[in-house]
Amino acid sequence: MTGRASKAPRQGSTTDFLLAAGSPDAPAVVEAKRVVTYGQLRADVARILAALNARGVAPGARIAVLAENSAFWVAAYLAALHGHVAVPFSTKLPAAEVTRLADWAGCAAVLMDARHERAYGDAFGDRPRVTDADLADATAPAWPDAEVDLDQDAALMFTSGTTASPKAVRITHRNLWANTASIIEYLGLRADDRMLVVLPFFYCYGASLLHTHLRVGGSLAVCNTFTFPETALQMIERERCTGLAGVPSTYQLLLRASSFGTRRLPSLRHLQQAGGKLPPVLIEELVAAQPQARVFVMYGQTEATARLSYLPPNLLSTKLGSIGRGIPGVTLAVVDEHGDPVSPGVAGEIVAAGQNISPGYLGDAAATREKFTGGRLRTGDLAVLDEDGFIFIVDRLADFIKSWGNRVSSQEVEGAALRLTDLVSAAAVGVPDPDAGEAIVLVAVRRRGSTLSEEDIAAHLRATLAKHMVPRSIRLVDALPLNENGKLVKARVRDMVREAGEA
Q: Which intervals hold domain AMP-dependent synthetase/ligase (predicted)?
């Protein structure tokens, strides 16, 4: 196991930390056809650890976890955190990419559900493996003791790769403990909270839902069919879920293509939004859709374990569009190119410091030096502060469009387009243009059955935006390209535009 040297004494494992509050008979994971209690979950973790030990896997090994969201995924991940290093894999990757990443990360064993063995069994070669089928008739052994150095690696989390090739972020036990405690504090999570999980656990946002709800003795209701959002709403109703977390595409689909806005879901008491900017008009719709639920607009990165900031729900009306301020234990600043704080209203890059900040990337010293400087994380997001110290993101540095000598925020163009309620989602990108430098192109998805035309959208934007921000062309498509976490991938949108002959 690699990591920074620590002067702190060794602690009980992160798995012990996460499971400490869950009583044996309390529900931990709710699946479509069964409920797994904390006692059953602990027994499965012990079975997996015993199986790894029997297969000769040494303590501290990197353990691949590849499964769909399930009680098995949770048990496998917790087993890997108990004296090993968890390496979660996306179930959407090609088998050849899984092989490459497993070799590069040095995975010594794999925990995989049986349903994925056909697709990925050969991808891990002859590494020792444990599947859910191995646990069916296994006797639960005694709980094994494990200690960890908090500054050693707990997990390697692959970044989403929305702007570049994925990297493996080193998340230490201290990172995980700190971020979990901070999120629980500002959300006010309790043992009777039940989160509907539509985000994959292999994504840091999805993993944070697991960390926080297990830590307080709450439960996770797993929904793997969000392509049909009404199924998720039925599960919220049936299982009396108190929370829902999503990325922008999650809420765009719920608000513009489901009954979420008119259906009463009284059990919901908090909604979490992160993973990209949800336009203010949709935040307002979200608040109105379920007025009994507190809406938390949040901001984070994989390099920060998960969360960096949140906007208190009571400030949504006065600070609409802001990501708030740093969560407990996190300091955020907006700085210029020299690293000096900017004045209110002046754009700069967000940098972050706190115990949740990763020590860096696995095997990539150059990228680590570029991203982590002076003990701070450079986020790559351009933002401005208001007079009260609240942060408003302008755009990703990589997503700005340079057109006719102006720097245009793609998010501002998208937000203006989405004021048309017949649009479900939109993406603005720049394409090479000999005169403008980059021409603005908007790609959008309509509600099913809508007759809204490209000219209707263009007319709305001409009346809404400054002239230099109006897209040169608009394209309506059936769907925008999302990564395995449900996040929009601008690079693929640009490819779509180029292939359509816009460049």
A: 20-362
Calculate ∠ Cα 428-433-438, nearest 5°.
40
Q: In this structure, how many other beta carbons lie within 10 angstroms of the beta carbon of residue 318?
A: 9
Distance of CA 338 to the CA centre of its chain: 30
Which tens digit of pLDDT belongs to each residue from 24-58?
999 999 999 999 999 999 999 999 999 999 999 99
The CA distance from 437 to 190, in Å, is: 53
pLDDT attached to residue 483: 87
| Helix H or strand E encompassing 171 | strand 168-172
**Is residue 98 classed as helix, strand or coil in its secondary structure?**
helix
Put residue 363 in one of left, alpha, beta given phi > 0 → left and psi -120 to 50 → alpha: left
Q: How confident is the model at residue 165 (pLDDT cuts 50, 70, 90)?
A: low
**Domain enclosing residue 447, as ranges:** 400-499
Is the CB of residue 83 less than 8 Å from the CB of residue 60?
Answer: yes
Dihedral sign, CA of 428, 431, 437, 442? Answer: negative
Q: Is residue 61 part of a domain?
A: yes
> CB neighbours (10 Å) of residue 399?
25
Q: Is residue 336 part of a domain?
A: no
What residues form DSSP beta bridges with 203? none
Cβ atoms of 333 and 186 within 8 Å: the answer is: no
- The mean pLDDT value for 176-201 works out to 98
Note the pTM of the prediction, 2 decimals. Answer: 0.88
